[in-house]
Design a protein that fits this description.
Strand content: 25-35%
Helix content: under 10%
Radius of gyration: 13 Å
Strand order of the largest sheet: 1-2-3-7-6-5-4
Number of helices: 1
């Protein structure tokens, strides 16, 4: 996600608060140590973290893909658990070449192009719902 006309970004330390077409109420991007500040590629959409993990481990995710994990927010996910399992994208040789977007939250140990807390979340009809 990058800011474009009609979108906004607030940067504070290691986080950026973004607002745009996917996150009309906002989202949080972890920006510490990013080597690339934007990513464009096909969205690979999953309705759960386990489904995304299965695709990563089966090597169905390729460099340039953006992994979208929806239904993990406060209402859609059970207790809004941390989205840390997709970290093995690095062990699949993908590293920072793949983005991660979720309406859930992410771990403090998460690195690379990561955007979480997308609001409104998919469960309540947010843009990632379609």
């Amino acid at each position: 996600m990058s800011s474009a006309p009609g979108e906004s970004r607030i940067r504070r330390g290691h986080l950026a608060i973004l607002k745009g077409n996917l996150a009309t109420e906002g989202c949080v991007a972890k920006i510490t140590g990013l080597k690339q500040t934007s990513i464009q590629g096909p969205a690979r959409v999953f309705d759960s973290e386990p489904a995304a993990m299965a695709a990563i481990l089966a090597r169905k995710i390729k460099a340039g893909d953006v992994i979208v994990i929806r239904y993990e927010g406060p209402k859609g996910g059970p207790g809004m658990r941390r989205c840390w399992r997709p970290l093995p994208r690095s062990s699949a040789g993908l590293g920072e070449s793949v983005g991660l977007v979720t309406d859930g939250r992410f771990s403090g140990g998460t690195w690379g192009m990561v955007v979480g807390h997308v609001a409104p979340e998919a469960y309540v009809g947010g843009r990632s719902h379609w």
